[in-house]
Amino acid sequence: MARAHKYDVIVVGAGGAGLMAARYAAQHPGVSVAVISKLYPTRSHTGAAQGGVGAALGNVSEDHPEWHAFDTIKGGDYLTDQDVAEMFAHEVVEAVYELEHMGLPFSRTPDGKIAQRKFGGHTREFGKSAVERACYAADRTGHMILQTLYQQSIKDNVVFFNEFHVLDILIEGGECVGVVAYELATGQLHTFHAKATVIASGGNGRMFKVTSNAHALTGDLMSVVYRRGIPLEDPEFYQFHPTGLYKIGVLLTEGARGEGGILRNKDGERFMERYAPTIKDLAPRDMVSRAMYMEIREGRGAGPDNDYIHLDLTHIDAHIIETRLPDITEFARIYLGVDPVKELVPIQPTAHYAMGGIPTTINTEVIRDGDNTIVPGLYAAGEVACASLHGANRLGTNSLGDLIVFGRRAGIYAARYAAETSYKDLPRDEQDFSRALIDRALNGPGWERVSRIRQDLQESMQDNASVFRTEETLTKQVEVLKELKERYQKIGVEDQGEQYNTELMEALELGFLLDNAEALVHAALNRKESRGAHSREDFKERDDEAWLKHTLVYKDGEGVRIDYKPVTLGKYEPKPRVY
Fold first, then answer.
1. What share of the chain is helix, strand, coil (3-state, %, to 5)?
2. CATH topology for 432-530?
3. pTM over 0.85
């Protein structure tokens, strides 16, 4: 295979956002499109998403995009850019119908419309009560989206480079002109020359010990752009999903609570009535996760060690559980030996989703500073990106909506840019940076083991920078990360082979994870307030006067530099979040 490639549009990542971008770019006349993925596309993490896509279709009860936009802004604790939320709430309706027309097998109402159910933080009439807004395909919605979009991409003649790890983006004269990727099958570096590059490579949850994220989610492209001088926006806001299987982190969809599931402490009390009296168990995820931790802390956790909460589905009709929630029922039976039809399921919060990421405009163009200076030829969509739809806390179902709305926008705008521009020159010695990364790992002294450093990173991040944070724990974690980065310089790789050297890839992924953790911890230490998923015990209140602004974290030598970007406000004034 040739190791130099040329396409008008290159998409990095083959999950929902990447496939949506590829499909819409490929429909632009005369535009060639290729997708580079570290996995086979249908193994991408979008396939693990269970609950649904939030869209105000109004198929079950009255609903409007304005209500959805308000819920998104309020759920994001008013750090959400309001123009983005309003655009999204309207466009996601169109995008859901487009998926239906592509053949996605949504669950149906008795009269044949797309079925909808309740989900956390989604309300009618600006917060009065919960509303059925989540469009779903049993509890396999993400899987169905991934399969449908992959089929469509094949139909549209998109070219796929599977099991290629992108190690660098190529910037020349301030413009993005492509990427460099490592081919797992041969150990060769490949240069991909492009007019437009779309980053859609997913999240970074593997920096935490208990996570719903697949092993591949190591924040590679967040780290790559961070090393190239582009900041990460709002990395301190990391969501912990309330219902992960105890000790394992495998996700049980919020759809379980949408179908009537109840959270109970060891006394059997439905404790969310005390924390969110109106919508109870369907409060936003950050509130539910904190409430669960408070119950555990105050001695009301279940089990021998009082360290988990129960999810109760036993009062729900068994047929509903088996047909609408088949996957999570199977997960509980396989991993914990618990039958949700008859027994309470042990759960705990699990690291789930990055609200922050590579900063973009509303049109997915990557920006390099608080003045919205665009990096020509570079786009980002999905969890890796931050147009600030999610603000300080993402509502359930808005991730799949994010993928299809912003993936589509990225494909359209990237193809339009590619059609109007010509290929720029590549940098001289464009593979040097990537080759040096590989050589350092292959030829390192081997005094430290990658697996041990990764374990220490995940455990320390779980202890010091997860649901609750203080100046003390975050300062401690800054020092831990310094030590881990020093230890990382002493790693080595035993496998010196060129074919399928997964040990080498894990070593490089650890370096990416360390960058992601560094940005998160410094931003969390810097933000002296509590907002959304960022909960500081030493600064318990939200402080709009000082902190109603986005964080931008830049790599600065061996340290970091922090700058800010204003929040785009609109008609919804910041108010206390009461549910």
1. 35, 25, 40
2. Methane Monooxygenase Hydroxylase; Chain G, domain 1 (1.20.58)
3. yes
